[in-house]
Structure formats: structure tokens, C-alpha cells
Amino acid sequence: MASDPRRVVLSVDLDEWYHCRWATGSPRSRWKDTASFFRDHYGSDRPAGELVEPTRRVLSLFARRGVRATFFILGEVATHYPELVREIDEAGHEVGSHGYHHVDIDLLGPDGFRAELARGREVIAQVLGRPPVGYRAPNLLLRDFMIPVLRENGFRYDASVCTSRSLLGKNFGHDHVARNPYRFRERFSRPDPQGDLVEIPIPTVPVLRLPAATGILTRVAGVGWTMWGLRDALKTGDAQYYFHPYEVGPRPPLALSWRERLFLRRLGPWMEGAVERIVTRLQEAGVRFVTAGELAEAV
Ligand SMILES: [Zn+2]
């Protein structure tokens, strides 16, 4: 490793398993939206609180390892769990926005995005008394038309770009994008050292250019796969790893297809142990954990 310590952002998307694309928010989802899922699954107009315990496990893990992270929180989640948002903030972590509803950008369109972004930002601003400056798009789907809207809403950085080729029908197609954090202005895939916005990408494995530094790939392909991508990215700059609290929680009580079972493989204690191993190995390698906001200021 270089003499200058590399920085790694640990980030957490605060949404629930039913925000996955197979469940809600995409054209192929089982439920049209979360409102119909709540009615069908909980017989209620709100979730049942399964998110709280796994999120607290994640907070304990971070406290145990002495690291601070960035939580990209869905507005819908902040509305249902404002106390949890305050707990995260009070533990010293950064709170960013993950939009309001967990819906594919191509379903929302430009006007829908504008409304969702403002609403998601507002709910966090109300809960914490200050607005978020970082954004992660639901399902990591970023489009150039979103950039001026992010800027208008006071966002300083984005952390949505996985530098992967397309995988399992998910249109990343960003294998040409720079893999270490960089500044940009109009187009998120075109670095501009004078740009006013920062992109903090999610690393892939070398050559194959498939996602590496995500909880889903850690569970599907193993800690070694994730570390391969992270170590490769760290050769040239700073990096990021992200996962979800639902990944350290119990498997949802549903009949699942093979693809859903693969996607939800090794939830619970296995994943909690895996995240701790990744954090520990990176600490042993001498990296410094910073929040995404701190990294964006330093790029
Ligand atoms: Zn998400």
C-alpha cells in the first residue's frame, strides 16, 4: 500500500428487503408499490419495524471496530423510523439521502425525480434539523439529467455509480467510468478536476468488471471476491464498500424463486461476520475509514 493512507467509505443503504427490485419499485416487481405490499404483507399502511434490530446490529459492529460510516436513508424509511435516523446521527455517522420511494429512475422520469429528491431531502432535514449533502440513487440508477437537480437541492456528492458492466438484467453499463472518487460537473461519467460535484464510485473486480464492493456480491460470491475488487481499487485511489442492514437480519418469510434465493443468500450472522472481516482486513491493511461527506471534501 502507498505511504499515504488510502481512504475507504463504508456506506449503508437504509432500506428494507421489500425495496429490492424483485419486490417493489421496478417494472418486474411482485408488488406495484410499498403501499400495496404493506396492505398485502402486514395488513397495515406501514411496516412492522423489522429494520430496527438489524440496523442496531450494524451500529454496534461499527462501534466495535471504531469506524464511522455514511447511511443513505430512504425518505419513506425516515418517515416510519425517525428515531432510528436520530440514533444513527447521534452515533457520529453521516446521514445522506437515498431518495423518497425506492423506485427505478426510468419509471420516475425527470419530473418524478425532482419531486422525490426534494421530498426525501425534506424529511431528513426535518428529522435532523439540517439537510443531507450526499445522494445515492435507488437501485444505483443514475442519469445525467439528475445532476442539475442534485445541485439545485444542495447536494455536494453522489455515490451511485457502480463501475460494472451490466449484470442479470441490471443496467449498470458503467465499466468505462473512473473507479476512484473524482470531481465532475455536467456528466457524471466525465471527470473534471474543477467540477463542483464529487462522484464516489463502487468498485468492481478487475478484468471482469463485475460488482465487488457491495453486500449482495459479498453474500453471493464471498469475502475474497469483495476484497479482490477493493484491493484493486485501492492500488490507484480511495474506495467504497456498501451493504444494507436487512442483509444482517433474518430471511423474509416468503416463497422465493431461485433468483430471489440467490439474491438473499447468507443473510444474517454470516453476513454480519463477513462485514466485520472486511472492515478488519482493511484496517490491517492501513486504510482510514472516513464518511462519504469527508471524502467528497478532500477529493
Ligand atoms: Zn436501496
Offer a few descriptive terms.
single chain, alpha/beta, 299 residues, binds zinc ion, 4-stranded mixed sheet, 9 strands, 5-stranded parallel sheet
Q: Mind describing the biggest β-sheet? A: 5 strands, parallel
Distance between the termini: 19 Å
Beta-strand fraction estimate: 5-15%
**Strand/helix succession:** EHHEHHEHEHEEEHHEHHEH
Mean pLDDT: 94
Could you explain the architecture of this structure?
By secondary structure, the protein is an alpha/beta fold. Helix content is 39%, strand content 11%. It has 11 helices and 9 strands. The strands form 2 sheets. Strands 1, 2, 3, 8 and 9 form a 5-stranded parallel sheet that branches. Strands 4-5-7-6 form a 4-stranded mixed sheet, covered by helices on one side. Helix 6 (146-152) links the parallel strand 4 (134-135) and strand 5 (157-158). The longest helix has 24 residues, at 105-128. It starts with 6 loop residues before the first strand and ends with a helix. The mean pLDDT is 94. Bound molecules: zinc ion. Zinc ion binds next to loops. Zinc ion binds at residues 13, 15, 19, 98, 102, 138.
